[in-house]
Every structure is written in C-alpha cells, then in structure tokens.
Amino acid sequence: MAHTELDLRERRAIEDMLNAKMAVSKIATHLGRHRSAIYREIKRNHFADGELPYLSGYYGVNAQRNASDRRARRRKLIRLDDLRAHVVDRLIEGWTPEQIAGRLGHDNQPIRVSHETIYAYVYSAEGQSAQLARYLPSRRKKRLPRYARRRRGQVFPPERSIHQRPDHVKTRTRFGDWEGDLMIFEKKTGNMNVASLVERKTRYAVLFRNNNRSSKHVMTSILNVLEPLPQPARKSITFDRGFEFRDWRRLKTEIGTESWFCDPQAPWQKGSVEELNKRARRYLPRDTQVAALTNRNMKAICDRLNETPRKCLGWRTPTEVFREEMMKLR
C-alpha cells in the first residue's frame, strides 16, 4: 500500500479522540494507520504555549498548517527547476548539502534552502530515483529524522579526532600511517563492497572485498591485512565516521594501531584514500559485480595501482617506495 500523508479530516479526528482520552493505539486502529504514525504525528505537531500552558495540546487545523508548511519547504527542489539543477550539479561534484546550502547566496541563487531540505530531497522518491544518495560522503540508504539520529560521541570520542592526530602524520614524514575507506557499489549488485587502504607516505594501496558493511566483518578484514606487517609499518590509520569503523578499538588492543577520525562530512581530510578510490574506480565502476571478482582479480588491480609511477614520489612507484621503507625496518 502506498504511503499517504494524513489529511485534515484525520487530524481533526485525532484531536477529537485525544480530547476523549482515547488511547493512541485505538486511534490508530480507528483511522487504519500504524500506531507509530499517530505517535509521530502528535509529537511533531503538538502545540505548546509557554505563557498559556492550558492552551497546549494537539489541534487538527494547526497540525495541518504545520504539515503544509513543511511540504512547501521540502518541495522547493521539486518546483524550482533551476535551483534543483544547481543543487544536483554540486552534489555530483562532491559537495555536501551543508556546503551547497551555505554557498547559495554567493552563487547568486535567488531562493535559499537549508541543508535539511537538500537531504530531504535526496532521500525523497524523486531523489532516490536519480540515485542522488550515492554522491553523499556517508552514502546511507536512508536518513533518520533529525531528532532520531544516534549520537556518535561515544563511538568516536573527541580525543580520536583528526585534529588530535600528530603533525608528523599530516606531513607524511613517517612511514606506517594509513588511511581507510569503503567503496560502495550499486544496490542491484548485492551487499558486497571493497575496502581500500593506503599508506600515506608511500601511497601503497591495498584493496579487498567484504561480504557486507558490518563493523565486525570490516575490522576483522583490516586486522588480517595489517597484522602481518611489523609494528612500525602499521602505526596508525585514519577513517571517516562511518559506523562500519565503530569497532576501531580492536586495532589498538589486538595489533597496537592507533585510529583517528575525520570530522563529520569531511572526506577531504583523508585525501590519500579518496584519491585511491578515484583511481580504483577506473577498474571498479559502481555497477561492478563484486561477488564475481576473485582474489586474483583484486591482486591484479592492486598491482596495477602500485606499479604505476607517481609524480609525488619522484616518478617512482608505490611498490618501490614501500619496499624501500620496509627494508629500513629490518
């Protein structure tokens, strides 16, 4: 059954039944709606008057007006072709919704929208049909309501912020500092993804497949890649704040590797692995059937990436520089 918005008749009925002290579950049954939809409707459109608290409550007409206002804001990107084209172009270029919204005034756009409106459009039916979510750094399938999102402070504490990372990691003067990310593919290809790791100083790349995005599975795979290396070759690794990396503490406890995390929606702070992903997409486009790739296929791609000379390495290859650094550790 297709989703339909509550209408004024239903909202007035909710008001009457609430005044009659009817339970929310019974209201939902009476209207043929799920009880969570009714709970959400009451919470979202509850009117509160700080000066006259006896007027606080749920009012159907007021709720209908609030809903219409929200739809009007959300629909700007559907009604206004020029604004929508501008926003979509920036998304494709890799801008975040917050950056797009913040720049609208500088880009001479007569109409402004908030980053929340852009997110709402990206995850709307129109945005999903255009697969706009794939251009977002976080690449989630859907977005939770603003006030229902889980806090990540405990998962990625402030002391693990990239701003606390030692300067010698930033300057690439030390060997053994890595960056990590996941390469995501079209939904129709299945749940598999490809993890990408790159050593910052040598640009040496490692790619491997994952069956899914669970943190336990991803971290186990990363441990299997890094553990054979001597400790000086795996001092630290920098991730974004995706929940596939929330088991980062295992790296410290099991192999002694420190973890650092970029700011939210700031993929450029791990530019080495973003550049690696861009190069790897030549061989692993988004419609790749990852399940059909063998270990030999993955190794061939890694070899091609690592055996290509790089200007930043004085036209040496990542393999040559990585091997040289490993020889120094013996």
Can you give a write-up of this model?
The protein is α/β, with parallel strands linked by helices. It folds into 3 domains: about 10-75; about 75-135; about 160-330, 2-Layer Sandwich (Nucleotidyltransferase, domain 5). About 40% of the residues lie in helices and about 10% in strands. It has 15 helices and 7 strands. The strands form 2 sheets. It has a 5-stranded mixed beta sheet with strand order 5-4-3-6-7, with helices on both faces. A two-stranded antiparallel ribbon has the order 1-2. α2 (about 25-30) crosses α3 and α7 crosses α8 (about 115-120). One of its GO terms (biological process) is DNA integration. One of its GO terms (cellular component) is cytosol. This is Integrase core domain protein. One of its GO terms (molecular function) is nucleic acid binding.
Q: How do you describe this structure in short?
A:
Helix 1 runs antiparallel to helix 4 (60-74).
Key words describing this protein structure:
five-stranded mixed β-sheet, 330 residues, two-stranded antiparallel sheet, Nucleotidyltransferase, domain 5, alpha/beta, elongated, 3 domains
Order of helices and strands: HHHEEHHHHHHHEEEHEHEHHH
Tell me how many strands there are.
Answer: 7
Which strand-content bin applies to the residues?
A: 5-15%
**What share of residues is helical?**
40-55%
Q: Give the overall shape, derived from the CA principal axes.
A: elongated
Q: Compute the gyration radius: what is it?
A: 25 Å
What strand line-up does the widest sheet have? 5-4-3-6-7
Structural class: alpha/beta
List unreliable stretches of 5+ residues.
none
Named CATH topology of the largest domain: Nucleotidyltransferase, domain 5
- List the total number of helices: 15
Mean pLDDT, rounded to whole units? Answer: 87
How many strands, which pairing sense, and closed or not: the largest β-sheet? 5 strands, mixed
CATH architecture of the largest domain: 2-Layer Sandwich
Please tell me the total number of domains: 3
Terminus-to-terminus distance:
66 Å
Question: What's the CATH class label of the largest domain?
Answer: Alpha Beta
